[in-house]
Amino acid sequence: MVSHNNAPSDVLVGTLSVTCIAVLYCAITYILYLDNLLPFLITTGMDGMLLIALAVVAIVVGKPLSYLNCQVIGSSSVSESTYQLGLELKKSFNKEGTKVQYGNWIGASKFTCYEMKAIWGLSIALCILFAFSAICSICLWRRSKAIAPKSVDA
């Protein structure tokens, strides 16, 4: 791909970018939580933003995947479509500066199809976890506001 000056599809680049940002965010917030340096309201906002980004990834990645049956890829009934896919990939690699289409990428092999479906499922799970984290953070923020610190009398 690199030697032919081709680029991966925008969907794969976006998925990788959002995932790297989410991992970095989780590592940083874990450290800041241990030191009690991270306000709950900021955490709620960041969790909400990551929830939106992961929801977009889940929708964009899952739109063509939901119609794809990974078990029939590579069988004799779809050998003609596999040949057609090979021709499309060969055409995109022969042109300088083209992008590999996401639809061609996910249908390339049974393994790639299952791998993309796993990524799609994990992005949905991350959406649920970040939504739960945002709800917990807002509840903890309200609880910390309700409990007033006791003053120390001398």
What secondary-structure arrangement, pairings included, does this model have?
Blueprint: H1 10-34, H2 40-65, H3 79-94, H4 102-106, H5 110-146
**Helix content bin:** over 70%
* Low-confidence region ranges: none
What composes the largest sheet? none
Q: Name the structural class.
A: mainly alpha
Overall shape: it is: elongated
What does this structure look like?
The protein has 154 residues and is an all-alpha fold. The protein has 5 helices and no strands. The protein has helices at 10-34, 40-65, 79-94, 102-106, 110-146. Helix 1 runs antiparallel to helix 2 (40-65) and helix 2 packs antiparallel against helix 5. The longest helix is centred in the C-terminal third of the chain and has 37 residues, at 110-146. The radius of gyration is 22 Å and the shape is elongated. The mean pLDDT is 81.
